[in-house]
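dumping this here before i forget
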Amino acid sequence: RCGGDEAGGEPRVQEDDVLTPRRVHGIAKVVGIACGTNHSVVCAEDGVYSFGYNRMGQLGLDCRENVHLPRRIRELEGKGVCKVTCGTSHSLFLTSSGEVYGCGTAEEGQLGESVVGTATVPVRLNFQYDDGQVRDAVAGGYTSAFLQKSRSLGFSHSSIKASLIGALKGFGAGESGSGKRLIGLVESIFASPELMNVVFGKEEGFGMDVEELERVYKLILKCGIKDQDVISAFHTATNTLIRDLGENSNLLTSPESIQVLLAVFQNPLLSQGKMAYNMMPKICKVVMDCISISHQLLSNWWSEYPASILAGRIVRPFQDYISTTLDREQGNVSPSLVSTLNVLALVEESNQRNRTLPMEEFYNDLISEKFDVLQHYIVWRQNASAGARGFSFCGYPFLLNNQAKSNLLQTEAKLTMAEMVQKSRMESMFGGIFKLGDQGAVAPSRRKAAAAASGGGGGPSQASASSMPAPESCGIDPIHSDACILRIRRSHLMQDALEEIGRQNEHDLHKPLKVNFIGEEGVDAGGVKKEFFQLLCETVMQPDYDLFVYHEESRTYWFNGQSLESEADFMLIGLVFGLAIYNSVILDVHFPLCLYKKLLGQDVGIKDLEQMQPDVARSLKKLLEWSGPGSVEDVFCATFVVDQPKGFGETTAVELVPGGSDLAVTEENRRRYVDLYVDFVLNESIRAQFNAFRRGFLLLTDGPVLALFRAEELEVLVCGTPHLDFKALQENARYEGGYESGTQVVQWLWQVLQEMTLEQKQKFLKFFSGSDRAPIGGLAKLGFLVQRAGPDTNRLPTSHTCFNTLLLPEYGSRGKLRALLKTAIENSAGFGLE
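structure:
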């Protein structure tokens, strides 16, 4: 023994410090020794001894005087003490039976709840949270720590998983006594964060083995069918685990502690209505109470989940809970529901990384269809503009389906249209007293320049002459207070369309669109403009116009970065897209998803290139992953050069960096090469053309509602959905003029449609609606009307595309209906003859 002697520390009084070890007399057969700041405790075979500073009673000698000679602690005789440990002013004594005694100060809680103030004699410490034995104890400073082994387990950690699986299989096989053992295991393992990590944590790295966890969950549920006590034990254990996590959420700071939350969210009890109603808000509150790094970790782990588990165990239980809670609470949104929505937002964010689930999995039909989404949109706008803090489901746009978002966009467009029409009427009535403001055309007139350059021709691929007068000479008023007027010759479709749109000012463009095909009788109640956009899209994509390049492997178009057309043309094409959305018209265009991501201001990368040029993307990935044989430079023979399409099957070589043609791609720089290549194709090479296109597109569509859309949803808004569910069309069809669903000719109609090819169905859809694609929400939302058009006749069926109406005579035979309907859909174009 050596050290200071301020309080005495050996069997005879020592005045000076002891700088070399000396024997402490009076104690033999020592088992263990512990020292506090100024006191010592010795565990010997014949008892426990203490000496030193004792103002807090830490010596356990039933006094507070300092003790200079080792003195046996009488209260511990016969207790079987096997270990002693000391803190600054307290001492702990562990017995061979797993009991713990303590003495000294308890002001900092170091003696648990068994001692208040101080204890001058050892007191047995009680542990309320478990009935297990203490295997080890450590004291230091003002802290105590204990290591327990639960009596209910009866096996080592290394065999826990095997024991659980064995018990599950044994119970399934009907082994005697297996039920009691299984229940004990379930109650112990699924109530303990530590054991959950031991059994289901990944062997390497962090996170849970979610597939193994799912297998065990299913086995437990299967056993629960035979014995309800198994489910009761599982329920009790899960509640205990959630309560433990909630009480210690401030300790969830490491990956090991946070990953247990994965197992809780995957728990099948969260799919059970009543149980979920109690458990879901508690566990979501735990997540929201955790530090932000836990949110990032959960998001990372969820992004790697298999689709079936992510959908079945995570997303759908969330959706069920949200819908049930809203219904039960009559639409009121409580703080606990907000926490649930915030956690679901984390799940949705993680899903965006790998697009594991389609966006439809996150739609909530109750919110999208039953709630006043417009009112929530108003609150959301107020929150953004006035700093208000009202709740709005628009803060969670992934919950709103395409139809709900489209309705918001259409409502906002209709309000803007009404406002512009009203202002235009006021200007017409009061002249200079009420003016909309001086606004010029969105694009200057080019008709004279085009005529001079082509000798009066009508465009790159159109006839140079036409029997129809030019728009300015056709006799149709160019301006109307109630509409945006376009006057179009079919023979000069592209030229007239861009010229007519370009001459409008922004106020006129915000009015309802009316299209007039010069020389035709059609009145535009919606159908004429549908055909106009359809024909214009077909024309714009033609290679003669040099605006877009077609990629055969993906059947998509992309901007021609080498186009000789002006930026004004691309701006007007973008405006055509925006004008169609603003007027609720679906376009027949085929662009890759990255276009819509770029329109929304999102980054694009190699995954987006893969949708447009899959072969190129696969080659780039192969280059990144190449590990031999041979070096990257020798095998791929690539330099920092890219071939840029320029139309008509021709390309031009462009260096990605200065001197790129002489810079070989190697293992060291291949990542930079791929990043530059992808950025060049998707961004740099078409920057001027795309920026002009986006500027035109946003002229009418830019607004808060657009921020609610994801790229996939914007694509559906522009193009509709290619999936044609004719069963849904039939189930939602309406009939007039004496027809009903049971009428013979109506039944023949649906039979004939069922026999048609996909191409014929698309033509039929275009025949009566003006578009060969389904609107947002599918064909069920189209509002198809079949109207009787007289008795049996040899006349063809006709349609009102403005109102999605088929005018069908009551033909006398199925064969006749089929022949005449096919003739009609194969020869439908125009609204009258030139």
